[in-house]
Amino acid sequence: MFRYTKATALREVLTWVAALVYLIPFYFLLMTALKSDQEVFSSDPVAPPSSPVFSNFTDVLAQRGQSNVLLGLFNSVVLTSGSILAMVLLGSVTGYVIVRSTHRWSRLAYYLFLTAIVLPTQLGTVPLYIGARAIGLTGSLWGMIILYTGMLLPLSVFLYANFFRGLGTEFEEAATIDGASRVQIFFRIVLPMMAPATGTVAILAGLIVWNDFFSALIFLGGSEHQTLPVAMYFYVGSLVSQWNQIFAVVIISMIPILAFYLFAQKRFMQGFAGGLKG
C-alpha cells in the first residue's frame, strides 16, 4: 500500500519548484507577446500587460512573401505529417523484417542502421544537395519528405526493432494457422500492438522535422514551400526590435507541436521505456 511520507512530500515540492522554474521563460514569452509596442519598452518585463493586445498574433499571420508565417505553418504541417507517415511505414516494416529474419545479414543490417544514427547528417549535405537537385527534388515538399525519411529512418528502425524483439510470436503463429498472409499479420496484428513504438517515432521525428532550420533553408531556399522556421527567420530579421511580434511568432510555432505531444505523450513514454529496455 502506498504511504505518503515526508520524502514523498519533499519530492512533490521539488517537482513543483522545478516545473515553475521551467515555466518562467514561457511566462515572459506570453506576457511580452500580449503587450503593445509602447508597453514593451516602458513597462517592467515581469509585469503582465495592462491591456492585452492580440493584434500581434494577427499581424504575424497577415505577413506575405518570404515572411509568410501562415504559409510556412501549412508547409511545416504537410512536411512533418508526410515524413512521420513514411517513417512509421518504412521503419516498422524494416524493423520487423530484421528481427524476424533468420539470415545472418539481418544482424549486420541492424548495426548499420545503428551506426547511421551516430553519424551527423550534415556530413553529406553537399553531395545530397547535388543529387537532389539533379533529379528535381530541391524546392519541393515531396523531396524534403524523402530527405527527412532517409535521414531519420535509422532511428525509426532502431526503435521498432527493439520492440519487435520483446514481442512474442504466438499471435503471428496463430494467425498463420488461420490462413492469414504475412501482410495481413503485420498490418492487422503486429503493427497495432506497436502503438507505443509508433508514438515514440512520431514524436521524436515530428520534433526534429518541425524544428529543423538548416536542411529546410538549404533544400527549399527561394521556393514557395518554405517551412515555418525559415519563415520565422526572415520575419524576425525584418523586425529588429519588435519583441512582442517576435515572441508572438514563437508562440504560434510552438502550439502545433505541443498539442501533438500532449496528445501522444502516453505512447511516447511507453515507447521510450520499451526502447531503452531493448
From TrEMBL:
<feature type="transmembrane region" description="Helical">
    <location>
        <begin position="77"/>
        <end position="99"/>
    </location>
</feature>
<feature type="transmembrane region" description="Helical">
    <location>
        <begin position="142"/>
        <end position="164"/>
    </location>
</feature>
<dbReference type="GO" id="GO:0055085">
    <property type="term" value="P:transmembrane transport"/>
</dbReference>
<feature type="transmembrane region" description="Helical">
    <location>
        <begin position="185"/>
        <end position="210"/>
    </location>
</feature>
<feature type="transmembrane region" description="Helical">
    <location>
        <begin position="243"/>
        <end position="264"/>
    </location>
</feature>
<keyword id="KW-0472">Membrane</keyword>
<protein>
    <submittedName>
        <fullName>ABC transporter permease</fullName>
    </submittedName>
</protein>
<feature type="transmembrane region" description="Helical">
    <location>
        <begin position="12"/>
        <end position="34"/>
    </location>
</feature>
<dbReference type="GO" id="GO:0005886">
    <property type="term" value="C:plasma membrane"/>
</dbReference>
<keyword id="KW-1003">Cell membrane</keyword>
<feature type="domain" description="ABC transmembrane type-1">
    <location>
        <begin position="73"/>
        <end position="264"/>
    </location>
</feature>
<dbReference type="InterPro" id="IPR000515">
    <property type="entry name" value="MetI-like"/>
</dbReference>
<keyword id="KW-1133">Transmembrane helix</keyword>
<dbReference type="Pfam" id="PF00528">
    <property type="entry name" value="BPD_transp_1"/>
</dbReference>
<dbReference type="InterPro" id="IPR035906">
    <property type="entry name" value="MetI-like_sf"/>
</dbReference>
<feature type="transmembrane region" description="Helical">
    <location>
        <begin position="108"/>
        <end position="130"/>
    </location>
</feature>
<keyword id="KW-0812">Transmembrane</keyword>
<keyword id="KW-0813">Transport</keyword>
<comment type="similarity">
    <text>Belongs to the binding-protein-dependent transport system permease family.</text>
</comment>
